[in-house]
């Protein structure tokens, strides 16, 4: 029996940990007329011994910063400073490839710089210790909102919002507006809010929500963690994205709301709201321990959502959605970007893995992996695991609210009873790697033995070499022999005459080719041979199209009806099964599983030769009202694809006949008035017009009957007496017009169709439809017809017809659809270059963030169409430069989704994959500080507080040394738990003013300093702020075990790019408070260890990259990430000084080299007979590489040591610590321990080298800087 796992020890934090936020209060005054936000935030912070607190702040106008009520110095410099990059890019861009390289360099550099705090606060002057109350208001946490009326003139409304559950700052969300509040009638903890016009739709939308709320609480056996829950619905143009999550609050688009007359939006809205609630449990309350654990929380939220779908929307809906999601994952899971738990992939993607299609693929894959685990351990055990996670988080004594993949794997072993060898293979293969199994299967029935001989070929969606390299790089994986198998066995289900039987005999590992023998339980009775009927066909059907109804077997010589592989979807696999046509028909007609039916329809649709039996089977399934409606829609489209002149358009006839039997009056031959009370039948009939429009004749044109049928539906639509809206119905018919291909016979109907579309446009303009769905479908259809008939229709006329819909008075959905249609027309008329220029123009004009993102997605699709076409149109350099300028603009900086798609557009134009994964960052062009960010001229820019860098993971063999990749902290709720240092808790009051939602007014200056004048004296300019309201947010107080990180991220050491002042960047840490006996005050100690120093003395603008690969235990103790930037005017750089010590070292090396040459000569003579021995050659090669590394390390250490000696001799040489004029400090450049003594009036830098003997760790240096550098001269 395996020993129980020891409890995880509490790792003591080093004595130099960063600042810790104990409590935060946010007070805002919001001017709704001017769209400005005023106010301040009050932080209770445990200040590090360095005395400098670094915060992340953007789009703020900071008036002053107070520490314990007194003004203090602060520096604020925006990350995006709007530098003019036109000249720079014009000289660097000559082709799409160079533009893609420049975009990658700019994008990666911007992402890295945004990880650095840009608000520095000096807390050295005031270090008054105040007690912090860490007690809570009770065992049950809750969120409370109060309203306080003031007597001010004009009066203000103050809302006090208190959250007693400790959360990180990213989950604090506020929504301010004239909302209508709708309390839930069934649960008093739930509140729904929307703008007044949407209140009727809100009442109808949220009727079901209390059921989902209760279902989650019952399944997890716990109360909702935040005490109350609020849903806020905003206009789509106001929302940042379709859904945003915060603690006890979800902000969604009002586009998902629907009234009692709308049918189509119901299912999607219910699922979206259920997922938002699930994210409150897993994602907001339970947080990932590291970035590569985010997949787990995303998957658990999706798993809860699937439980809701299964219970309230039906098991068929849940299984069908999961099957389609698995198919999408198998097609896209072919690169390292979809490796969920790979730390290298998470670092390489910089947090962009949740954007767009890649985010959906990763989310679907996460849910599929968790469902595979549930199948392995059983639903009850999986439920207990989730309950244990929630119980552990709600424990009042020692709550643990972070979750890691390793901990979940431990739960799967202890609670789920899964064996450790299985888990040791499962997680590295499915979570740490990428690629899904592809199984190609065929069988033969052996009548003599009464067995099935099943042949299986196992492949992978990803390339074998890349998948194996990623898998073998994982230290937890024992699969190092090149096998890309998966753990476990797959079940094969055989349906015979005597029943069904499961055979879990197919191993997912081992040989790629496998032959299985499966015993049959049914036996054939002896039968007399019967001659086939005259005129019969090999498949059993005769000329009249009849098929045998009694004998459902594939042939008279087999007892098999049909066979399925992995019927319960226990594996995320792509299965290609080959069985006779009659067996597929049996599976479609007799199997009640929706997944089996969908697989049968796909197989029958892809047959090279179609028989009448296949068409008849599809038609029978379409007309079966008991079948699941989504699969019936697939059967309708399969009939359309099988309809051709070879089959006399039998599929088209069946579709039209089915529709007319349901919706036409047999007496007059015209459509009946609409009746949508049967929802499944409504969805099936809604899909029939589009299926009919997709039928093609031999000339690839639509048959005349299909065009006439669609026109008839559009002309005689009557919704009188129908209790439901027909807007989605009409939109589907209009979109089917866009699917038609007009030939000579059907061209006569074009004018009638266009008149009907124009009539619908005019009607929708007078009485707008739900979300403008009818107008958007008409615009899309007009654009499609114009592109197909460009030889008959002037595209300029269509352009002018659609252009008025871009007016900003129209609703948001219509404006965006009109912009996309105009981009399509421009692309097909004038090419991709003109379309991109028009796209840039539309982006500059579009005010909504979501609209900009949708336009970016559409432009990327146009670029992908261009890349897949045979046309080789050249993109002008001016267009590429314009895209690069937009990438670095304030617009893209404030919209991270748009910025990502701009990067993807430039990558697609260069023929690359639209992702950050796999970029050769070591080959990207360097972008210095002069180009990306203006020179930071501030009082203490050298003291930029950062978090400790994480070491490069061992499972990332292709990680470039020059790439700086951020990774979130291991514990989001805990940053410092040090027992060695003094806890100096101070209260910081940060006042921020004149912050507008319009980003252009936020950063007029690159640096704000609190020096001199009225600002240093605490004087404020009171302005008339009009009608305002204020919001006060009081976050919970926290004890030392629940401290919240300021930046919430653990940032790796980034590449230091230098300007022409040759500023050198090093890591600073080990901030300790001076001992009581130290009369010189506090000292700041910082250690930066390096084993690889790249210096270019001739080029002062070249980057100096300091790597941290060989850090010994003592050096690692002082390795908190803080940046020291030192500028010298004399061009001095590290490693550029020679010394006598270096000459001595060279002499010693020369002697050692001569000695080694003699020794090697003797060894060569001894091993002359082993020159052909491969083992000897391999050992020799490894030994040579080892010696080469030792040699390089020794040379580096000697150079650094020599530099420190030279610096000690020149310690009186003056240098400048900052770029401020008139301030000269005497500092010796070194990356080492820094001590800051405030009381000494002189500024002297002292450098000492203290390398450890007998170790390969680099030496440490110490620089002492007196406190005057932080005071104003």
TrEMBL record:
- Biased region (Basic and acidic residues) positions are 970-983, 1016-1025, 1162-1179, 1239-1253
Which regions are flagged for Basic residues bias?
Answer: 1147-1161, 1261-1273
Gene Ontology biological-process annotations: transcription initiation at RNA polymerase II promoter
Checking InterPro entries in the record gives: ARM-like, ARM-type_fold, Ig-like_TAF2, Peptidase_M1_dom, Peptidase_M4/M1_CTD_sf, TAF2, TPR_TAF2_C
Q: Where is the composition biased (Polar residues)?
A: 1026-1047
Q: Which GO terms describe its molecular function?
A: chromatin binding; metallopeptidase activity; RNA polymerase II general transcription initiation factor activity; transcription cis-regulatory region binding; zinc ion binding
Q: Boundaries of each Transcription initiation factor TFIID subunit 2 Ig-like domain copy?
A: 435-580
Major site of localization recorded for this protein: nucleus
Annotated localization: Nucleus
Region Disordered: list its residue ranges. Answer: 529-551, 970-1047, 1129-1273
| Residues covered by the Transcription initiation factor TFIID subunit 2 TPR repeats domain | 583-892
All copies of the Peptidase M1 membrane alanine aminopeptidase domain together span 209-402
Q: Keywords, A to Z? A: Nucleus, Transcription, Transcription regulation
Sorted alphabetically, the Gene Ontology cellular component annotations on this record are:
transcription factor TFIID complex
| Pfam families tied to this protein | Peptidase_M1, TAF2_3rd, TPR_TAF2_C
Hey, which family's this protein in? Belongs to the TAF2 family.
Q: What is this protein called?
A: Transcription initiation factor TFIID subunit 2
What are the top taxonomic ranks of the organism?
Eukaryota, Viridiplantae, Streptophyta, Embryophyta, Tracheophyta
């Amino acid at each position: 029996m395996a020993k129980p796992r020891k409890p995880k020890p509490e790792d003591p934090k080093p004595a130099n940990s960063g600042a810790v936020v104990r409590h935060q209060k946010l007070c805002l005054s919001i001017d709704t007329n001017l769209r400005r936000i005023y106010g301040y935030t009050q932080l209770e912070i445990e200040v590090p011994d360095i005395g400098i607190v670094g915060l992340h702040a953007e789009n703020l106008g900071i008036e002053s910063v107070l520490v314990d009520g007194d003004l203090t110095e602060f520096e604020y410099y925006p990350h995006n400073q709007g530098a003019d990059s036109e000249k720079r890019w014009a000289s660097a861009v000559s082709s799409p490839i160079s533009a893609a390289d420049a975009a990658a360099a700019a994008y990666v550099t911007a992402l890295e710089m945004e990880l650095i705090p840009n608000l520095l606060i000096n807390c050295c002057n005031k270090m008054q210790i105040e007690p912090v109350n860490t007690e809570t208001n009770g065992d049950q946490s809750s969120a409370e909102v109060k309203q306080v009326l003031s007597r001010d003139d004009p009066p203000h409304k103050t809302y006090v919002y208190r959250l007693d559950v400790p959360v990180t700052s990213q989950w604090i969300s506020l929504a301010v507006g004239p909302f209508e509040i709708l309390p839930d009638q069934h649960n008093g903890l739930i509140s729904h809010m929307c703008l007044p016009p949407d209140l009727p739709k809100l009442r109808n939308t949220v009727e079901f929500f209390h059921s989902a709320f209760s279902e989650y609480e019952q399944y997890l056996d716990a109360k909702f963690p935040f005490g109350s829950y609020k849903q806020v619905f905003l206009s789509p143009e106001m929302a940042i994205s379709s859904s945003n999550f915060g603690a006890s609050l979800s902000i969604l688009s009002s586009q998902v709301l629907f009234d009692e007359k709308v049918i189509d939006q119901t299912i999607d809205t219910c699922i979206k709201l259920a997922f938002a609630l699930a994210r409150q449990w897993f994602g907001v309350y339970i947080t990932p321990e590291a970035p590569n654990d985010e997949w787990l929380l995303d998957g658990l939220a999706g798993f809860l959502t699937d439980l809701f779908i299964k219970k309230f929307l039906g098991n068929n809906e849940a299984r069908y959605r999961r099957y389609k999601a698995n198919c999408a994952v198998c097609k896209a899971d072919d690169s390292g970007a979809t490796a969920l738990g790979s730390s290298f992939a998470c670092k390489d993607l910089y947090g962009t893995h949740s954007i767009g299609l890649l985010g959906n693929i990763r989310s679907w894959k996460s849910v599929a992996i968790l469902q595979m685990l549930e199948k392995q351990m059983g639903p009850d055990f999986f439920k207990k695991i989730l309950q244990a996670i929630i119980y552990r988080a709600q424990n009042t004594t020692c709550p643990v609210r972070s979750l890691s993949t390793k901990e979940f794997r431990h739960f799967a072993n202890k609670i789920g009873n899964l064996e450790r060898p299985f888990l040791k293979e499962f997680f590295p293969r499915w979570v740490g790697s990428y690629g899904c199994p592809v199984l190609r299967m065929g069988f033969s029935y052996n009548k003599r033995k009464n067995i099935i001989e099943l042949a299986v070929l196992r492949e992978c969606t990803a390339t074998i070499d890349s998948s194996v390299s990623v898998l073998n790089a994982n230290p937890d994986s024992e699969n190092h022999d090149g096998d890309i198998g998966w753990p476990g066995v797959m079940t094969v289900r055989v349906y015979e005459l005597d029943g069904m039987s499961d055979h879990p005999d197919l191993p997912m590992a081992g040989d790629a080719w496998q032959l299985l023998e499966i015993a049959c339980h049914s036996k054939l009775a002896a039968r007399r041979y019967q001659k086939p009927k005259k005129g019969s066909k090999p498949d059993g059907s005769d000329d009249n199209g009849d098929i045998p109804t009694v004998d459902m077997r594939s042939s008279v010589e087999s007892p098999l009806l049909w066979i399925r592989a992995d019927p319960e979807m226990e594996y995320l696999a792509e299965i290609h099964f080959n069985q006779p046509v009659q067996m597929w028909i049996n599976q479609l007609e007799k199997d009640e599983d929706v997944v089996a039916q969908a697989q049968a329809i796909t197989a029958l649709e892809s047959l090279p030769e179609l028989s009448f039996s296949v068409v008849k089977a599809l038609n029978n399934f379409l007309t079966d009202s008991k079948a699941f409606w989504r699969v019936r829609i697939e059967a309708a489209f399969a009939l359309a694809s099988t309809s051709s002149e070879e089959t006399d358009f039998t599929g088209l006839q069946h579709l039209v006949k089915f529709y007319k039997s349901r919706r036409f009056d047999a007496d007059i031959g015209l459509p009946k008035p609409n009746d949508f009370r049967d929802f499944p039948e409504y969805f099936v009939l809604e899909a029939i017009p589009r299926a009919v429009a997709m039928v093609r004749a031999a000339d690839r044109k639509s048959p005349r009957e299909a065009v006439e049928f669609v026109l008839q539906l559009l002309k005689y639509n009557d919704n009188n007496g129908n209790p439901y809206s027909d807007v989605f119905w009409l939109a589907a018919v209009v979109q089917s017009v866009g699917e038609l291909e007009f030939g000579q016979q059907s061209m006569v109907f074009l004018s009638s169709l266009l008149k009907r579309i124009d009539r619908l446009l005019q009607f929708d303009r007078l009485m707008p439809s739900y979300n403008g769905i009818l107008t958007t479908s008409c615009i899309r259809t007009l654009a499609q017809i114009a592109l197909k008939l460009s030889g008959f229709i002037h595209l300029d006329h269509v352009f002018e017809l659609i252009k008025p819909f871009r007016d900003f008075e129209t609703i948001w959905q219509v404006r965006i659809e009109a912009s996309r249609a105009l981009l399509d027309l421009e692309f097909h008329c004038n090419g991709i270059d003109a379309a991109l220029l028009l796209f840039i123009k539309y982006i500059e004009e579009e005010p909504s963030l979501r609209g900009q993102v949708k336009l970016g997605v559409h432009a990327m699709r146009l670029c992908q169409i261009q890349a897949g076409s045979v046309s080789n149109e050249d993109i002008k350099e001016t267009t590429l430069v314009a895209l690069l300028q937009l990438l670095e603009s304030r617009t893209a900086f404030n919209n991270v989704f748009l910025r990502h798609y701009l990067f993807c557009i430039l990558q697609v134009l260069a023929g690359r994959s639209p992702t950050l994964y796999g970029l050769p960052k070591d080959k990207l062009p360097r972008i210095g500080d002069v180009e990306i960010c203006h020179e930071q001229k501030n009082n203490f820019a050298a003291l930029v507080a950062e978090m400790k860098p994480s070491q490069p993971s061992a499972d990332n063999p292709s990680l470039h040394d020059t790439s700086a990749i951020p990774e979130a902290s291991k514990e989001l709720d805990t940053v410092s738990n040090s027992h060695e240092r003094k806890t100096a808790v101070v209260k910081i009051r940060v006042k921020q003013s004149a912050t507008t939602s319009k980003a252009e007014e936020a950063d007029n200056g690159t640096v704000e300093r609190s020096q001199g004048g009225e600002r240093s004296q605490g004087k404020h300019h009171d302005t008339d702020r009009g009608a305002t309201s204020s919001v006060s947010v009081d976050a919970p107080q926290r004890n030392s075990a629940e401290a919240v990180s300021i930046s919430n991220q653990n940032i790796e050491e980034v590449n230091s790019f230098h300007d022409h002042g040759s500023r050198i960047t090093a890591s600073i840490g080990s901030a300790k408070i001076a001992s009581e006996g130290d009369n010189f005050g506090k000292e700041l100690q910082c250690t930066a260890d390096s084993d690889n120093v790249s210096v270019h003395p001739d080029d002062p603008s070249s980057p100096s990259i300091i790597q941290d690969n060989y850090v010994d235990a003592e050096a690692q103790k002082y390795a908190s990430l803080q940046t020291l930037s030192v500028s010298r005017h004399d061009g001095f750089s590290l490693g550029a000084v020679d010394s006598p010590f270096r000459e001595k070292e060279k002499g010693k090396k020369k002697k050692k080299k001569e000695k080694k040459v003699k020794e090697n000569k003797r060894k060569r003579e001894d091993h002359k007979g082993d020159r052909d021995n491969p083992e000897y050659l391999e050992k020799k090669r490894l030994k040579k590489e080892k010696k080469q590394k030792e040699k390089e390390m020794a040379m580096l250490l000697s150079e650094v040591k020599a530099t420190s000696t030279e610096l000690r001799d020149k310690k009186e040489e003056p240098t400048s610590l900052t770029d401020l004029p008139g301030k000269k400090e005497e500092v010796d450049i070194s990356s080492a321990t820094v001590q800051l003594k405030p009381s000494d009036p002189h500024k002297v830098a002292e450098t000492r080298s203290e390398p450890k003997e007998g170790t390969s760790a680099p030496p440490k240096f110490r620089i002492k800087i007196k406190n005057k550098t932080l005071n104003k001269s």
